[in-house]
Amino acid sequence: MEYQDVYDVKLKPKILEYLMNDQIPNENDHSPQQCDLQRVVNAINNLGLLSESLPEGTKNSKICEDWAIAVDSWVHRVLSLVSSSRSRKCWTGICLLGVTCRECSSNRLLAWYPVWFDKLLANIQPASDYISVKVATFASLLDLLKRLGKYSEIKKDVTVQAGKLIQPVLDLLLDSEFSEVLMVSSRQCYFTASF
User: Fold this and answer.
1) Which parts of the sequence belong to the Pre-rRNA-processing protein RIX1 N-terminal domain (predicted)?
2) Which residues form the domain of 74?
């Protein structure tokens, strides 16, 4: 089999599998594998590894099947990290779920968003003590809700899902430590925007 370059659609499932096996920690592995998150996110974004979108005129069911299997594996790995009791792995999974929400196909998003929303919501409940996990969770929830806002056919359900955030958000705003992080972040945004 010949490949033109890294943008060749035949390579996308293989590259995704490589990133997952070489760069993404496994929840069951207790060794402290580090994830080069920037490298992974750049590859996902630049190569469209989660899009499952074949170029026009390409009809190859084997490529579609391989790609769907690779993305399924990716989603399951990311979700296992989101549920991790180890804060670093949980944070990594949450960040990667945000990227997945932005980059996956519409069909996958519409099929999985209730599960993704509930997994993220669990990480802003009071049981999660890590501020970095909560901040990453809000960023990923924002990615998910922004993307879902483009689909009028699920507007009612998305509104119900978003309503589940009201109490946890109010609880966090009343948490002095989290409020301080938000104030520092908003000041940094203000000063960045001012220059």
Assistant:
1) 33-176
2) 4-187
